[in-house]
Amino acid sequence: MQLNRTELLHAYRTMAACRHFEESVYVNFSDGKIPGFVHLSAGQEATAAGVYMALEERDWIATTHRAHGQCIARGMDLQETMDEIYGAATGVCGGKGGSMHIADLDKGMLGANGIIGATGPLAVGAGLSARAKGEGGIAVAFFGDGGSNAGMIFEAYNMANIWNLPVVFICEDNGYAEATSSSYSVAGTQVARAKGFGMPGVEVDGFDFFAVLDAAKEVVERARRGDGPSLMHIKTARFYGHFVGDAQTYRAEGEVEKLRAEKDCLKLFREKVVGAALLSDEELDTIFEEERQRIENTTLASQAAPRATKADLMTDVYSSY
Amino acid sequence: MQLNRTELLHAYRTMAACRHFEESVYVNFSDGKIPGFVHLSAGQEATAAGVYMALEERDWIATTHRAHGQCIARGMDLQETMDEIYGAATGVCGGKGGSMHIADLDKGMLGANGIIGATGPLAVGAGLSARAKGEGGIAVAFFGDGGSNAGMIFEAYNMANIWNLPVVFICEDNGYAEATSSSYSVAGTQVARAKGFGMPGVEVDGFDFFAVLDAAKEVVERARRGDGPSLMHIKTARFYGHFVGDAQTYRAEGEVEKLRAEKDCLKLFREKVVGAALLSDEELDTIFEEERQRIENTTLASQAAPRATKADLMTDVYSSY
Amino acid sequence: MPKKTYRAAINEAMAGEMRRDSSVIVMGEDVSGGTGSPGEDDAWGGPLGVTKGLHTEFGPTRVLDTPISEGGFMGAAAGAAITGLRPIVDLMFVDFLGVCLDGIFNQAAKFRYMFGGKAETPLVVRTMYGAGLRAASQHSQTLYSIFTHVPGVKVVVPSNPYDAKGLMIQAIRDNDPVVFFEHKAMYDDEGEVPDEAYTIPFGEANVLSEGEDVTIVAIGKMVHLASAAADNLAKDGISCTVIDPRTLSPLDEETILEEVEATGRLVVVDESHPRCSVAADISSIVGEKAFKSLKAGVQKVTAPHCPVPFASELEDLYMPTVEDVEAAVRRTMA
Amino acid sequence: MPKKTYRAAINEAMAGEMRRDSSVIVMGEDVSGGTGSPGEDDAWGGPLGVTKGLHTEFGPTRVLDTPISEGGFMGAAAGAAITGLRPIVDLMFVDFLGVCLDGIFNQAAKFRYMFGGKAETPLVVRTMYGAGLRAASQHSQTLYSIFTHVPGVKVVVPSNPYDAKGLMIQAIRDNDPVVFFEHKAMYDDEGEVPDEAYTIPFGEANVLSEGEDVTIVAIGKMVHLASAAADNLAKDGISCTVIDPRTLSPLDEETILEEVEATGRLVVVDESHPRCSVAADISSIVGEKAFKSLKAGVQKVTAPHCPVPFASELEDLYMPTVEDVEAAVRRTMA
Ligand SMILES: Cc1ncc(C[n+]2csc(CCOP(=O)(O)OP(=O)(O)O)c2C)c(N)n1
Ligand SMILES: Cc1ncc(C[n+]2csc(CCOP(=O)(O)OP(=O)(O)O)c2C)c(N)n1
Ligand SMILES: [Mg+2]
Ligand SMILES: [Mg+2]
């Protein structure tokens, strides 16, 4: 916990923005204002805030379908991000990608991905680019507990290790892949799997922003030093279903309520920093409210944003025709 | 070494047959009498002899492109096996499969496979069948050191473990995948990788028939008891190139000669059993010569065997049209 | 006859066959849903509920939730199929074929041939295809053309609940690998479906209506566009034959050729991208074998040669429409 | 002009571009051959020696032997391509697409579109295709039709050393993903190849000969069959136009249509399985857009709808022959 005030405020602001963003998406998706499928990361904000605080501009990230919070934490334009989820022409991907394929290459964000497991190899490739560039950048691959069983992830582990690449693998384990529990689908442990490839791994409490940040700093620094890849296994939980609309009957009764009460990373952050007298409840409340307002404005703007037209359908298939 | 005379003789006969078979294929391929690509298992006979002695009729095996010896060890008809490699109509697959896809489902042999990594999932499937049948059968997946980096292998590890299937995974590590050394391509160790999935693994000296047999018996028994999958990592070496025609300049000078002199599993077997006065040099010589002769006869017959005709081209695509 | 949804028809086919034959198993991601979880088992029955109830009735050894390892479980299904089981594998979206095509096209599809006719591989791969749900580029593709290209695979695309049930039962009883395409926007479609088991043979097209002027062959969900277009055109005195091939491999060439010989004109409607598509395939077969009967070039109505866009407006533009079909028919009459 | 093999032409193209542009890298199984081994590095240069020498010249950071992890390294190449490198990936046999198609068709091919035009993915996938080497079902397939089906991928099939070099340089400089098909039985073919760099634009067909009676479009190795058939037919007074499209996506429709308009007859020769093939594709395009010019149905010459058999006799029967092409031409004249 060696963060200064500005950093602490920034961390909380990020988590608050993520939370409000997802709640706005939840409400508006449920109201039929957002098309498609959306996968919300509410509950998992400490991952986004903690990991991304350890990253730098020169780094690349390949992430999952559950990426809204990470886009915010990466500093992508909030309006463009929300617009994309609404499929507006002003979205960061012109509305062609949507929630599952939101990307911002200028920010090193290689995209959310609709294909589970694809992020591992993409980050290995970005790691090759980072090494070739020689500017000290690293690459990060996110995947879920479910994604941890995809063959491409292990192939990526192996390649990153034999090539000693500046790659960090992050298994963001929220306990479920859709309706299937990771206690069933994952043989062995994430850390032992990493060790199988000669790679260090660390398990982290994903409800604790500070634990995430500390662990992230370590693995990121290791990669940046040229000491090779590592795995971070973040144990967390989602506050909503797999996608909006999931009735979640596979979860225990009261599971989500209990999580919200006891394992809310925003609350736990607040307890820590207020307890240590680093920040006050009032300033946190102000930030929380500011972000609520900012997301509300963004939401309204997205709903009014211009839409793509016929001229857009057949552009961008190739860069040269 | 609790084998009786008959078993010892059988083991040696199997290895002798494998060796002569591969040498015949080598000569005749080099002479242009065998079409396609052939991958020889000479040097690796202890794997075939040892593992298959631990198996029973009710078991299933999915194996690799380097499978001639294993076909013999499985008791497939020698003539049909050789015929297949020549592409004769009398081959076990009617000449349609060849060396890379030789199979004999009646013997539980699910085939050599041209796709690296495919054997892991196939054995998991056979393990599901074995469990459904409830007759105590098990399934074995072979793959090489190179194959050990294929994502499907890890997916198979995971499935076999979460379902606690009667499956044995065998990494037959001859040190090379084509021209690439396993010291380069494999991060971590095979045994540690298995442990990553909560599965026991054992490294075995693949030049020592008895070591292979003992280890195989243990993992096979474990699977048969219902205690789940295991990994055997057999360290061995091939006496020929990746395929016939490989100039092998990636190998150390004198490497193969040294292997032939010091690590020939037939010679090491002989030293052990003759040293322990279990068998005599003479009877082993006789067997070796008998098998030479048998392979020679088989070879001549394969060269004279009838060939497929136009009528065969379009049959067997579907079982119903 | 009782009315049932497309979803219910497929579910009923699987349940019935599982009752009849204990070697039929179901595997895939969340085909039960809830395995290992603290709440309900059989919580999902697949993301759109098509396998709902099977886990409850047949238990976890016959209805297996799999890890997210399509390459692994597709290969496992192939291995199970040649060793005595009859797996029905759920490949949630056909878009995921990029990680599991091997088990289908190099393994299951080739065993019989490579092994000299000695293997049977009774494998059914159920998979969702098609656009319209705003699921964007990686969850909306129509990829049956890829499977139709591959010998050894049978390809089935039911367009309505009745066919879905009969074709699914046939698929499960068939001894060859079958890829069974379910359009994700059709699950709630209703139709008359008998309670008892029945099969629809592969390679027998369904002729929905017979006309004099133009033949329309349409695949899967596109059949409904074709019928709507035919209805509209009838008002203008243009009478159309509408054919649903039901299976793309084997393809009922005879029926298509006969009907084209009668009308002399053909439009093929296919939700695929145009190049190397089923539309191109049928067009080329007719162009080769019924050339003399053709009064006009065969017209294709397909999706465009671009990925499926997310934005609703763009996806609507992407999808073939009834108007597109009508325009194509009129082009053949021009 | 110096004579060079198809192998040497491709090698030279890669070496030249690697010298010119340090962001070009090569990766694949044994593209060097010998990494970590006690003997020589660059021992193989790929199983058929096409990348031989690159590792020696450019070293291990630009020429990477990969593990047998096609899914992984294809995805890695896609990731490298959108972050500034220009990878040339060796997919040893196109038959292995079943474990790595995702990186090509869902990632590389879709990035640009999904990301609203903001991505460039300069990726070249080199791969061997085709039958004739007795490599049997899983190492002999001709699968470019699958890639041609997918928007966002460019598909190149050079039929001779000159084209191979010019198309490879173009592929490396192109900012879109390109799949480059090399027929494994053509590496020793010789032809005139300039030493200097040159590019052949994509989407420009090569018209090998102009005739009056029949147009033959042939792909890759089949171009030689088409030319041989044209020579034979000339003796009988039948004069053929022979077209090599060189790239299947984009396809030079204009040239094909023009030539068919001139002759009124078309034969397409393609080593693929027939269904949903490039042969079907070109046939259907012509059948739709040049119908009025056609005097006969477009004839396809393809491999049959069965896996590639191992036995030499069967594989020879499997392959399209010069006689098949001649017969098809005669059918259009009947
Ligand atoms: C290759 C592939 N298989 C299946 C899916 C369908 N799918 C989307 S999300 C998901 C669950 C992912 O679980 P996990 O990796 O734990 O991530 P979470 O959703 O929990 O964040 C599945 C199966 C997919 N998108 N891609
Ligand atoms: C998926 C796939 N990738 C690549 C190949 C080409 N290939 C055939 S054998 C081989 C090397 C295999 O090495 P290993 O697994 O160690 O087995 P070994 O040949 O040493 O017995 C390769 C790369 C293949 N057949 N399948
Ligand atoms: Mg999860
Ligand atoms: Mg090896």
Give an overview of the whole structure:
The complex is a heterotetramer, with two copies of chain A (321 residues) and two copies of chain C (334 residues). With 321 residues, chain A is α/β, with parallel strands linked by helices. Chain A has a single domain (5-306), classed as Rossmann fold (3-Layer(aba) Sandwich), CATH 3.40.50. Chain A contains 13 helices and seven strands. Chain A has helices at 5-30, 45-53, 68-73, 78-86, 119-133, 151-162, 182-185, 190-196, 209-225, 255-262, 265-275, 281-304, 310-313; strands at residues 60-62, 139-144, 167-173, 176-177, 180-181, 201-205, 230-235. In chain A, strands 1-2-3-7-6 form a five-stranded parallel beta sheet, with helices on both faces. Chain A has a two-stranded antiparallel sheet with strand order 4-5. In chain A, α1 runs antiparallel to α11, α1 (5-30) packs across α12 and α5 (119-133) runs parallel beside α6 (151-162). Chain A is globular and about 50 Å long. The model of chain A has no long low-confidence stretch (mean pLDDT 98). Chain C is an alpha/beta fold and 334 residues long. Chain C has two domains: 3-192, Thiamin diphosphate (ThDP)-binding fold, Pyr/PP domains (Rossmann fold), CATH 3.40.50; 206-333, Rossmann fold, CATH 3.40.50. Chain C has eleven helices and 14 strands. Chain C has helices at 6-20, 54-58, 70-81, 101-114, 144-148, 161-173, 222-235, 253-263, 278-289, 312-318, 322-333, and strands at 3-5, 24-28, 63-65, 86-93, 124-129, 154-156, 178-183, 190-192, 206-209, 214-218, 240-244, 247-249, 266-269, 299-301. A seven-stranded mixed beta sheet of chain C has the order 3-2-4-5-7-6-12, with helices on both faces. A five-stranded mixed beta sheet of chain C has the order 9-11-10-13-14, with helices on both faces. In chain C, strands 1-8 form a two-stranded antiparallel sheet. In chain C, β6 (154-156), α6 (161-173) and β7 form a beta-alpha-beta unit. In chain C, α1 packs parallel to α6 and α8 packs across α9 (278-289). The radius of gyration of chain C is 20 Å and the shape is globular. Chains in contact: A-B, A-C, A-D, B-C, B-D, C-D. The interface between C and D is large, with 60 and 60 residues. Bound molecules: thiamine diphosphate (2 copies) and magnesium ion (MG) (2 copies). One thiamine diphosphate sits between chains B (39, 64-66, 114-117, 143-147, 174, 176-178, 242) and D (29, 68, 70, 92, 96, 99).
